[in-house]
Structures are given as structure tokens and as C-alpha cells.
Design brief:
mainly beta, Jelly Rolls, 6-stranded antiparallel β-sheet, 6 strands, binds nickel (II) ion
């Protein structure tokens, strides 16, 4: 009986928390007009979905505790690894393994959806002028 009680409670909660959809174009229009900007747009369990706009050269870094996923929505990214260079275009994605050194660059710029656990530092194990202390929601 207790179980069915808690199930009803869950239903109640879901009824009052109908999720709103995320429109990427609309969210990107709210990003600051800078070469690098990143904002959180959604969360699933402990994972955050971030929209990233980037042009230029990022810093070499790695994420010691987690993999990191980039889904390119627009433009082109060059992902540098120590012994390889991978081009990722709109409609493509890449999963960076935990602990692997990487550096994104882009001459023309790209827009991407980044998926990683909550609280992951954008520059991983490296502190630089590109490190963002707390990434905001939009
Ligand atoms: Ni990274």
C-alpha cells in the first residue's frame, strides 16, 4: 500500500512539473556576442546540457573524472589530440574519453551542444583565463 501511495505522489509531482522544451536557436540568441560563451540549458539526472559558441583556440586540458561529449550543431571544430587532429562538422559528434588531453580550435566558429556531468570545469585540470567559475543557466 505504501508503494502505491508513493507512486501517486510521483504522478502528482509530474503533473505539476510539465517540462518546457528547449529551442536551440532561441537559446543561442541569448548568448553574449563573444568568441566564447557557454550556458546551461537543461539537466538530465546528474548531466548538464550546455550550449557553446566558440571561435579561436581553446586551451589544452583534460577531464580527469569524466568523458565529455560535443555535438556540433553549426560550423566546424578541429579537435586536437596529442597525436591526432579530428575535424567535426555540423551534424557530427565526438566523445572525449576521460583523462585524454584535448584542445578545440575553430577558425570559422562553431555552435555545439556539450553534455557532461554537473559541475565539470570547462578547462578541466587547467586553470586559465578561459576558466569559468560558475556556468549560468539560460
Ligand atoms: Ni574539455
Amino acid at each position: 500500500m505504501e508503494k502505491s501511495g508513493s507512486r501517486w505522489a510521483l504522478c502528482d509531482r509530474e503533473m505539476t512539473m510539465i517540462p518546457s522544451k528547449v529551442n536551440f536557436s532561441e537559446k543561442f540568441s541569448k548568448l553574449p556576442d563573444e568568441d566564447y560563451s557557454v550556458r546551461i540549458v537543461a539537466k538530465m539526472n546528474d548531466y548538464e546540457f550546455k550550449l557553446v559558441k566558440f571561435k579561436g583556440e581553446f586551451v589544452w586540458h583534460s577531464h580527469p573524472d569524466t568523458d565529455e561529449t560535443f555535438i556540433i550543431l553549426d560550423g566546424r571544430m578541429m579537435m586536437h589530440f596529442k597525436d591526432k587532429l579530428v575535424e567535426i562538422k555540423s551534424g557530427e559528434m565526438i566523445v572525449i574519453p576521460k583523462g585524454m588531453e584535448h584542445k578545440p580550435t575553430s577558425e570559422e566558429g562553431y555552435k555545439a551542444l556539450l553534455i557532461e556531468p554537473e559541475g565539470v570545469a570547462n578547462t578541466g585540470d587547467v586553470k586559465s583565463e578561459m576558466t569559468i567559475k560558475k556556468i549560468e543557466w539560460i
